[in-house]
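Bench notes, afternoon.
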Amino acid sequence: MRGKSGKSVRCMKSKAQISVEYLIIIGISLAILIPGGYFFYNYSKSSNEGTIRSQVANIGSTMITTAESIYGLADGSMVTVDFKYPKNIREVYFLDGRELIIKYELSSGMNEAVFFSKINLTGNYVYPSRAACAAIPCSDSTITNNLDTAQGSHRLKFESRTNYILITQAN
């Protein structure tokens, strides 16, 4: 039996069946690939954030360990240490002489990593305590003058003083 175009009806049904089967295969493939791509994207994003958290923890613990080890040496002892900051670090500062705080940004928002020291830490990059701000006027420049946080290598100088460690950017 032939259709209007002169081709057999059986041939046209066969081509239509192949087209429908092809569309079904493409649909099933997309139904598998799209959710798979979504899950892979979320996994890689969370893996990247885990790496950033790990880098921040490593930077903070290295800073505290270095400061505590140099404190035991003679007054005036100095060491410089190189750190590699990820691009997500926004602030690095000292609070009340015993806390190192590293603020970093993830997709969930701003996070803080706080590291406690057994010794006093100071530098020309210190957030004043609330009590100090009550006693002396604290300007915004005093509060926001913290360690450089640009992505990449940073060299910090740890210097032992009489009863504290001075931590500054090294040249």
